Amino acid sequence: MKHIPRKRFGQNFLVDVQLINAIVSAVSPARGDTVVEIGPGLGAITEPLLKRVDHLHVVEIDRDLIARLKRLHAPERVTIHEGDALAFDFSRLAPGQGGLRIVGNLPYNISTPLLFHLAEAAEHVRDMHFMLQKEVVERMVAGPGDSDRGRLSVMLQYRFDLEWLIDVPPESFDPPPKVDSAVVRLTPKPREALLPVQDWTVFDRVVTAAFSQRRKMVRNTLKPVCAPADLDAVGIDPQARAEDLTLEAFVALANRMAATPVPPPAA
């Protein structure tokens, strides 16, 4: 029986063989690698991956596709993790520090929260290769001064080196999505290369506030989390917009705010 793609799971299945081979070649898995595929679907990437690795982990939420995977693959070759990738603890599959390789044609309707979730496991990951909506990849790689730059850009660029690898047209899928897609590689930065953040919660709060109203200057968007003197102290132009700030500027401001004692409430 043919599987009917389910809209609620954001299912668009890859059918372009040349593209599939290009993705697997970009991953270039070795026989003993610990590889996890998110949303294997009908197995377009699963099958060529299995030709290169001894064992494959897959995370799938669709019960019909899970049943199909069980029929096609012995447990010795494929471990099926049933459930939502947003709730899955990827770190528990890591063979060691930085050893996990994650691949997937990510459902576009949950791609941004899933990327944030995966970033939490960065220290356990060697690399990640994802098919995403092209617009999301544009946001991921956007640098200072780019209008596509946002919270996703800053938070991912803090942890990863990002490479835009392949552009993918809608006709590469069944059913074709209404948007263009792209394949991106995320490689965790070495621990020693990470900028020192004193308090991750404060850093997240500063970045989120900065991009809360994109058209406004940071002196206005950052008003809830810092004073104009704080911007001056770390060399941030109060008339700049959040998209203009470098990663280093965000870290410097967050570290200043983390080190600034909270004033006592007024009597």
TrEMBL record:
EC number in record = 2.1.1.182
Please provide one cellular component term from the Gene Ontology annotations of this protein: cytosol
What Gene3D superfamilies does the database record attribute to this sequence? Ribosomal RNA adenine dimethylase-like, domain 2 (1.10.8.100), Vaccinia Virus protein VP39 (3.40.50.150)
Q: Which CDD domains match?
A: AdoMet_MTases (cd02440)
Location in the cell:
Cytoplasm
Catalytic activity reads: adenosine(1518)/adenosine(1519) in 16S rRNA + 4 S-adenosyl-L-methionine = N(6)-dimethyladenosine(1518)/N(6)-dimethyladenosine(1519) in 16S rRNA + 4 S-adenosyl-L-homocysteine + 4 H(+)
Q: Which InterPro entries match?
A: KsgA/Erm, rRNA_Ade_diMease-like_C, rRNA_Ade_Mease_Trfase_CS, rRNA_Ade_methylase_Trfase_N, rRNA_adenine_dimethylase, SAM-dependent_MTases_sf
GO MF term set: 16S rRNA (adenine(1518)-N(6)/adenine(1519)-N(6))-dimethyltransferase activity; RNA binding
Q: Where is the Ribosomal RNA adenine methylase transferase N-terminal domain?
A: 19-190
Which SUPFAM superfamilies does the protein's record reference?
S-adenosyl-L-methionine-dependent methyltransferases
Enzyme type, top EC level: transferase
Relate the protein's function as given in its record.
Specifically dimethylates two adjacent adenosines (A1518 and A1519) in the loop of a conserved hairpin near the 3'-end of 16S rRNA in the 30S particle. May play a critical role in biogenesis of 30S subunits.
* Entries under HAMAP family matching the protein: 16SrRNA_methyltr_A
Tell me the protein family, please: Belongs to the class I-like SAM-binding methyltransferase superfamily. rRNA adenine N(6)-methyltransferase family. RsmA subfamily.
Q: Which NCBIfam families match?
A: ksgA
The protein's name is Ribosomal RNA small subunit methyltransferase A
